[in-house]
Amino acid sequence: MEIPVLELEGITKIFSRGYFKKKYIIALENINLRINKQDRLAIIGESGMGKTTLARIACLLETPTQGKIKWFGKDISNVSRRELSYLRTRVQYVHQDPYASLHPSRTIYATLADPLSRNNNIRGKELERRVEELLNLVGLTPPSYFLNKYPHHLSGGGRQRLAIARALTANPEVLVADEPISMIDMSLRATIIQILKILNKELGISIILILHDIGAARFFATNGGKIAVLYGGRIVEKGECDEIVNNPLHPYTRTLISASPIPDPDLAQEKKVIELKSYEPPKRELGKKLCPFSHTCLYSQDICFNKDPGLENVNDKHEVACFFWNRLPKWIPPWSKE
Questions:
Q1: What pLDDT, on a 0 to 100 scale, did the predictor assign at position 264?
Q2: Topology (CATH) of 6-105+150-267
Q3: DSSP letters of 96-150?
Q4: In three state form, how does the secondary structure of 227-280 look?
Q5: Is pTM, for the whole model, over 0.85?
Q6: d(CA 54, CA 62)
Q7: Domain range summary for the chain, segments of one domain joined by +
């Protein structure tokens, strides 16, 4: 079996607030993920489901309350500060907000040249060549036009391209992009995702893409990629892209897909909306085992409120955390004419 580049094993993250009377917020619970070399993984879910916390833990920017993080099979929970600093260069993070993540008073050349020089020990003409190479990779062409410009000269899409290029200066093994398309124009979103797919194919970088849009996740992960669906801090379904999109087995995944817009106006008018028992966010309590979707799901029964279903293998390409996945009604995609 291939040793994964990055593995998250039993990851739980609990935040506390208050001084005298503490309250606890369960952001993540028992997350297990394996990221192999050149993997493409889209993690989808609504806001507040733990996606950013998971991304920060994967990038070693946040420490889990429980669980292990493994790098090429080695547990890195107790490594030295020096080794942790090195490992953080191997897993790079692309922020959601391209307007806040770039230094406004540094030129595009300086934004890329400084980390390139520090991480690769290069100077002079070789440094200039590598900067231009990165700009070409992310589509900021011709490079000579952009070198002396500042971030405010770029559009939102241009800034996000620059943020991706900056992440590449460390030659990472894994790139984690936290909703990189949420703050840019709709017409440019596919371009940013396409850049990530090219980097995955040409440079062999494993890419984790955090999204709330199932359509964008499908575009990113189709043809060999994977999707993990996050709800209430838990992975409720994961597997190969085509399996998840064409045969979703968790009620929450079906709800996400049915809520996505359809470009065909005739089909959009006939689309059936999946009704829910409640639209309240999941309530997570320490030590209480239950399905996080039980209070909302139309198919929930007593067992769902008293036991955690856990992920079950449907086949070698598909896992789902639902007691009744094999009793759900036949799935008809919203874009189908049936």
A1: 64
A2: Rossmann fold (3.40.50)
A3: S-TTTSS-TTS-HHHHHHHHHHHHH---HHHHHHHHHHHHHHTT--SHHHHTT--
A4: EEEEECCEEEEEEEHHHHHHCCCCHHHHHHHHHCCCCCHHHHHHCCCCCCCCCC
A5: yes
A6: 9
A7: 6-105+150-267
Q: What is the pLDDT of residues 164-223, one digit of tens each?
A: 999 999 999 999 999 999 888 877 889 999 999 999 999 999 999 999 888 899 999 999
Helices (H) and strands (E) in the chain, counts: 11, 12
pLDDT in tens, 14-59: 998 877 777 888 899 999 999 999 999 999 998 889 999 999 999 9
Q: How far is CA 1 from CA 7, 31, 34, 52, 69, in A?
A: 14, 21, 12, 29, 18
Q: What is the pLDDT of residue 72?
A: 94
Kindly indicate the confidence band of residue 270, based on its pLDDT and cuts at 50, 70 and 90. low
CB contact set of 24 (below 8 Å; sequence gap of 6+): 14, 15, 16, 286
Question: Average model confidence (pLDDT) for the chain?
Answer: 90
Which of 195, 333, 196, 199 is CA-nearest to residue 272? 333
Instruction: State both tokens at 326.
Output: 């094999």
Find out whether the peptide bond into 142 is cis, omega within 30 degrees of 0: yes
Burial of 12 (0-12, 13-18, 19+ CB in 10 A): middle
- For 91, residues 6+ apart whose C-beta sits below 8 A from its C-beta are 6, 58, 59, 60, 172, 173, 174, 175, 176
